[in-house]
Structure formats: C-alpha cells, structure tokens
C-alpha cells in the first residue's frame, strides 16, 4: 500500500475542451483520463477550473467523474483565463506543501505557462504527469514533465472524421506518426503519415541499456529501463509502436536479438542486457567504422547507399546476414547502438548520411 502512487489531478478545463473541439472535432471526455490514471495509482484529488457557464453539459460529465468544479466567474477574456491559471497553480503548490502523502501531480493542459509550476512541483520531489491535446500542446511543456500523455492517443477517445483529417497533417519539423484510430484504407485521398520506426526505438532502448549498465552494477531491470526512457522522452508510449505493454515491446526486441531478457528479482520485471557479440561481429563493426572514417576524411560523410560496396572493397566476403541481420541498414543501426557510427537522415538526399561515432 505504501508504494501506491497517490495522485492529485488539476484540469485547465478550458484549454482541454477547446483543444479537443478545435483539433479533434469532438467534445472532451473525462473517462479516458480517469482510466489512464487509475492504471498509475489512486486519484485522491480531482479538480477542474473554468467559467462553467460556458461548459454546462460538461459539468454533468465531470460531476459523474467525481471532479470538483472550481468556478472562475470573470468574463473578461484573457483576464478570466489568467485567473483560472493562477488559481490552479496556487492550489497545486498549496496541496504539495500541505499533503505530504500526495506523490504525483497531474496537470491537464497544453499551456506552456504552467511549465514553472511543473518545475516547482518536481523541486518538491513530486512526480508530474502532463495531459494535453497533441496539436494544441506547447512544445515546451512535455519535456518539463516526468511523463506526458497525449489525450488524443488515450484508450476510448473518440475522434471525428474532421479531426482525423487534421491530425494527419504533421507539424513542420516533427516526425510524422500514425495516430490510433486512423486508417489509410478508409481515406486514401488524405495525406497519410508513417508509423514510428521500431528500428529507431531499438537503438534508443539498446543505448539506454548500455548507459544504465555502465552507471550501475550492470543489472538493468525493465522497470528502471522504462523510467529512464520516459526521462529521455516524457511523451514515449509503447502503444504508438503497436505494443500493448512495455514488456511486450521488450519481448519483441528480444526475439529480434536486439536485447536479452532474464528473470529478475520480481515477477514481471526481467533483467535486460545486450546480447554478447561474436569476435567476427566486432571485427565487422570495426571494419565499417574504418571505412566510414576513411571516406569521411576524403569526401565527407558518405551516404548509406553505396557504403556496403565500399565495405566489400576492403573485405569481399562481407555479409551482414552472417551475423543475423536482415539487411545492411539494420547492421549499421546496430553499430550505431555501440556508438561506432552515426546515422542522420537527409530529406534532400533521401538517404542516411553515415558518420564516425564517439566510440573507437
């Protein structure tokens, strides 16, 4: 019981409701948030802040969810919004001081104005989870949190066809993703987006295992691995890659030989390690790095296409398949996990540039 997270939930309701309406084409539903938080701990405080005269129907929905409605009655445009933000922040900090048993604070908003509040709560040793609409969440807010849940991707959230069309247009400079509930078959005329790359995720997982192993006694548990991945990217969610749980993701990577899983001290929390490499594989990685270094010194970072031929000029019998890799790209990405080379995608070249990594 002592290890159970005790959660205080604060909703900047106007931000969430308007974000859902404008970006998802649907009304805001509290139940998906309640369900997601129930999986993380016991919610003991639930408060939502707004001028409720604008959200009469929503009041009934939130009351059924046992949410305390905090009335901000001012009707002065931005002044009303600022009053709600200030009241929420003051209440959150006050509870953090007065209720030592609260371990986690959930701030439902996409507004970057709450970033100082997040920082202050974390200074007070509180875990902070953010919840926001993906398209209306400031890029500054998610990295400040311990974990950030995009409302759009929560189980049970309904998205209209209008909202789906809008969500398929990725922001400039971001990696496009396929959101749960969208379908390329249903709307072939809409511009579609690519699913997150499990290969890239495998690199992040492998690099994190190496880093944790070197910083500890070498034993890396799945639970600590996920916490570290979330610290690197608070928006990480294995569901975005098609997995129902983090353990299922790890099993998939283990089946592919990216990692190895062994029984840990607790059931359901295995130890994670990288598979031992053969001497031949080490030599192949060294050969790749040498070729990239030589090419980089003569002509600059080489493109991935054509690099395999350069490797074969040095070692005619080279084949990545001897080491269990399906293709050359997978082999190079494995070398990247070891810090031997780097891969940088270039849209203009429509290919990866390969550079020398930080490890010799």
Fold and architecture overview:
By secondary structure, this protein is an alpha/beta fold. It has 3 domains: 6-158, Rossmann fold (3-Layer(aba) Sandwich), CATH 3.40.50; 198-273, Arc Repressor Mutant, subunit A (Orthogonal Bundle); 279-356, Nucleotidyltransferase, domain 5. 40% of the residues lie in helices and 16% in strands. It is built from 12 helices and 10 strands. It has helices at 13-24, 31-38, 56-64, 78-98, 115-123, 161-167, 198-215, 222-232, 246-255, 279-299, 307-314, 328-337; strands at residues 6-12, 42-50, 68-71, 104-108, 127-132, 147-150, 260-266, 269-273, 341-346, 351-356. It starts with 5 loop residues before the first strand and ends with a strand.
Strand content: 15-25%
The parts where pLDDT drops under 50 for at least 5 residues are 165-194
The name of the CATH architecture of the largest domain is 3-Layer(aba) Sandwich
- What is the third-level CATH name, the topology of the largest domain? Rossmann fold
Number of strands: 10
Q: Class of the largest domain in CATH?
A: Alpha Beta
CATH superfamily grouping of the largest domain: 5'-nuclease
Q: What order do the strands of the largest sheet run in, or round the barrel if closed?
A: 3-2-1-4-5-6
Percentage of residues in helical conformation: 40-55%
| Alpha-carbon Rg, integer | 24 Å
* Whole-number count of domains: 3
- Whole-number mean pLDDT: 83
Q: What shape does the CA trace take?
A: elongated
Number of helices: 12
Order of helices and strands: EHHEHEHEHEEHHHHEEHHHEE
Tell me about the largest β-sheet: 6 strands, parallel
What structural category do the secondary elements indicate? Answer: alpha/beta
Q: What distance separates the N and C termini?
A: 48 Å
